[in-house]
Amino acid sequence: MIRHFDEGDLISVLTTQPLDRTLDYKAPEGGCLTGAFVEVPLGPRKVLGVVWGEGEGGYDLAKVRSVIRVLDAAPMREEMAEFLTRAAEYTLTPMPAMLRLATRSPGLGDPPSMRTVYRKGTGAPDRWTDARRRVMETLEQYGGLAFTLSELAEMSGVSTSVVKGLVKQGVVAEEASPRDLPYPRLEPGEAAHELTEEQREAAEALKAGVASGDYGTTLLKGVTGSGKTEVYLEAVAACLKAGRQALVLLPEIALTAEFLTRVEARFGAKPAEWHSGVTMTERRRAWKMVGEGGAQLVVGARSALFLPFRELGLIVVDEEHDTSYKQEDGVLYNARDMAVLRASITGAQVVLASATPSLESWANVEAGKYKKLDLTARFGEAVMPELAAIDMREEALPSTRWISEALTREVRARLDAGEQSLLFLNRRGYAPVTICRACGHQIGCDHCDARVVEHRFLKRLVCHQCGETKPMPTVCPSCGAEDRLAPVGPGVERLAEEVAELFPEARVAVLSSDLFGSARALKSAIEEIAAGGADIVIGTQIVAKGHNFPLLTLVGVIDADLGLQGSDLRAAERTFQLMRQVSGRAGRANRPGVALLQTYQPEHPVIRAILSGEEEAFWRAEADERKRVGVPPYGRLAGIVLSSPDVQEVFDLGKALAERSQPLKRIGAEVFGPAPAPIARIRGRHRVRLLVKAEKTAPLQGALAEWVGQVKLPSNLRLSIDIDPQSFY
Ligand code: ADP
Ligand code: ZN
User: Fold this and answer.
1) Residue range 179-184: average pLDDT?
2) How far is CA 90 from the centre of its chain?
3) pLDDT tier at 383, thresholds 50, 70, 90
4) Residue 146: its pLDDT value, please?
5) Residue 415 sits in the same domain as residue 518
6) Is residue 184 part of a domain?
7) How many angstroms does the Cα of residue 413 sit away from the middle of ligand 1?
8) pLDDT tens-digit profile of 294-319?
9) 418: left (phi over 0), alpha (psi -120 to 50) or beta
10) At 617, is the pLDDT very low, low, confident or very high (cuts 50, 70, 90)?
11) Among residues 465, 488, 511, which one ends one of the domains?
12) For tag attachment on the chain, is the N or C end more exposed, with fewer CB atoms within 10 Å?
């Protein structure tokens, strides 16, 4: 309940500091509301907090300190407080960490800062020049809008001194304006295209959901290019028309540029953006405007879910199956699931869009919890690519070659026809392993239990676990033999070498996340390729995610078996999704596409399911198997990782936990381990894993909290609990 506290009233404040309780303070001069963001003294420091409710009292009131000041930000809404509380309970995260996630806006406590802007003044210039005329044209064209100096100069194609000269003469007016301005209003215009019958029906269903004003989740399933974006933008439009805010989550920053362009075309202006590539001042503006209602639509990465929306009506999770929605450090949460939680508290709609939904979402549809809408046709003349396997057992390639003859022929045919080919290999770097041919030693990371990957562009060996790099040694670190170190296996950089030898005349582009310093660089590389700037594209999984390459008609998957190795319970699901996403890159615009999968096991059920395109059958088989062994989404898992520089300590504690499993047994859960984690050492810390498995309806979180609460953690030991783990490392 929202309450107003008068000056001197005892209030409790949740701070961002790692304490396991709220703290009592006195309300400041002028009082404060529940939910107000405040600055409070803590020892010698000032820290950020939020007014949580009435103080608890029970001690000497004379010693209670006062809130320093109330910050200039919209108070946290009750539903946001409830969302954070329930998300904390679900993920077993302490509340202060949740609050940090919800206040990741730099300068939240700063007074509203000002900046200088320029608009049309009243004076007349002493003389007209071309440059001066262009400045006036810009100002007139945009009516009463004000610009910063560099914006105005850039838009008019003049130097800033031209603008300054006009300011002197009063032709352009200079004034101060608050930095955190509302975003331009979005005007939901007409859809870019006339929707097909199928698209229209789906859009109507989503709009009806938005109009209901209630919670609901819909899985929007359709192959790449079937118009999912087109359809969910209709729901966004309906939401904005109803005066509510919308949030669109995308799995990859590189995708936002393309999406923003579409939003601008449709709504007349750009929405607010929220991801790691956004400047600090823009982040602050976005955070504040979302809270005050000055941002109608936010496009962002998973953490945008923790923005202080005032009136959230719709959350779209695009590519909902994408693993990047799971945050793997700090607060371990899955943005897809938290979106559903937030919407259910707030009374908003969720749209989960994907060509290859997660098994979790399939299961929720089947259980009647989510609705499902299908877009079956690719838009226009584009059809799904023809899929075929290349049986690598018959190809007999030497061990330093990875492109089969069959695939080489196909690439050559595309080159001759002036079309693009994509060679997909989900391995960054030059070679995954560097081995000594004298002693067989494989070079590893000094801090992790992992092999290092050679990156030739960087001229370094890189650990993909901790990021440490070192130069390539000339002698074997184990036996001292000179010049006997050799790369084993391919990465995209090595594949590029092979391509250069096979097709010396081709223009080759390598797309791998580590080869681009910024999202902008990656974006421009993608645009150049889309415009025909390359004949052969070599890429890791970043190419699988929704980019449009209209000239692409061939996809060659170098190693379709890669994801099938390993014991990950989602290995089959991931391979299936990734292969379908990648093969969906071919033939997007009016040219038929072909996808060829190089495999040593063409009769593997997953490969067969991909080739046959019998999705339902694949998902049904996968679901049956998971039901049989009682794992997600038909059972629940929690992964516990203990880590410490002291190997004995982690094992001792792991054993102590395993022996005290009574609280888990009570809910019928099983404990496995302790066992060394698949990567047994990262950054010098030894890692031990326990796995807890329970039935779907078991009250897992309470039991876990009680269980780990029984042991006292040594100060250098870290314990993390991952509810619904997505990766097992
Ligand atoms: P998805 O999100 O399913 O990949 P998109 O919404 O991006 O699909 O649509 C794929 C392409 O087809 C886009 O270029 C889009 O503009 C175009 N498109 C989709 N629906 C229509 C339509 N009804 N009429 C014309 N073009 C369309
Ligand atoms: Zn390392």
Assistant:
1) 81
2) 20
3) low
4) 76
5) yes
6) no
7) 28
8) 999 999 999 999 999 999 999 999 99
9) left
10) confident
11) 488
12) N
Q: Based on the domain organization, do 307 and 404 belong to the same domain?
A: no
- Short-list 439, 437, 467, CA closest to 452: 467
Is residue 444 located within the same domain as residue 404?
A: no
Q: Are residues 472 and 528 in the same domain?
A: no
Query: What spacing in Å lies between the alpha carbon of 354 and ligand 1's midpoint?
Result: 14
Ligand 1-lining residues (CB < 6 angstroms): 192-196, 199, 222, 224-230, 379
**Looking at the domain assignment, is residue 728 inside a domain?**
no
Please give the residue range of the domain that contains residue 135: 114-178
Same-domain check for residues 477 and 556? no
What is the chain's Cα-based Rg?
Answer: 29
Residue 664: pLDDT band with limits 50, 70, 90 = very high
Total domains present in the chain:
6
| Span 448-462, average pLDDT | 89
Tell me which residue has its CA closest to atom 11 in ligand 1. Answer: 225
Q: Give the model's pLDDT for residue 590.
A: 66
In a shared domain, residues 453 and 406 = no
- What pLDDT, in 10s, does the model give residues 137-152? 888 876 666 788 887 8
Could you give the angle at the alpha carbon of 251 between the alpha carbons of 288 and 587, nearest 5°?
135
Query: pTM for the full model?
Result: 0.84
Query: Nearest to residue 308, comparing CAs of 119, 104, 464?
Result: 104
Position 106 scores a pLDDT of 72
| Angle (CA) 134 140 146, round 5° | 100
Mutate to test the pocket of ligand 1, among 197, 219, 230, 580 (most ligand atoms within 8 A of CB): 230
Residue 42 sits at the vertex; the CA angle it makes with 40 and 43, to the nearest 5 degrees, is 145
Using the 3D structure, point to which of 621, 650, 669 is the last residue of a domain: 621
